Amino acid sequence: MSTRRESNEILDRMNRAEKAELLHQLLSELGDSFPGIESRPGVAGGAACVVRTRIPVWLLEQARRLGTSEADILKAYPTLRAEDLTNAWAYVRTHREEIERQIAENESDEPQ
To answer: Across the chain, how many H-helices and E-strands are there?
Structure first.
């Protein structure tokens, strides 16, 4: 049996909490690498963005917090794919303080 198939069978038997713990462990082992997310100087102030775009992760998270559905986010940003949102949410989970700070900075810049 292949390792991939064996892994899928194990995952099928795991509950959500066990899967979340496994994901956390895998992300720790992989380091700070997030496929589909990149930070580049001079693009969106160096904030983490979805690759191929200038859409910052904090902006997507802010929209989600305001109640915007994933379907509506994808409609608003037609260059995004569902996979991009999955990558963004994973980035948010492990960079909570950074995202909170960027949202707060953006809100303080808005005209009253």
So the answer is: 6, 2
> Cα–Cα distance between 98 and 95 in angstroms, integer?
5
90 contacts: CB under 8 Å, gap ≥ 6: 27, 34
Q: What pTM does this model have? A: 0.68
94 in the same domain as 43: yes
Instruction: Centre a 10 Å sphere on the Cβ of residue 74 and count the other Cβ atoms it contains.
Output: 15
User: Any idea what DSSP says for residue 38?
Assistant: E
One domain for residues 44 and 17: no
CB 21 within 8 A of CB 29: no
Residue range of the domain that includes 1: 1-31
- DSSP one-letter code for 92: H
Q: pLDDT class for 107, splitting at 50, 70, 90?
A: confident
Judge contact between 75 and 69, C-beta under 8 A: no
Residues 25 and 37 in one domain: no
Return the SS3 of 37: strand
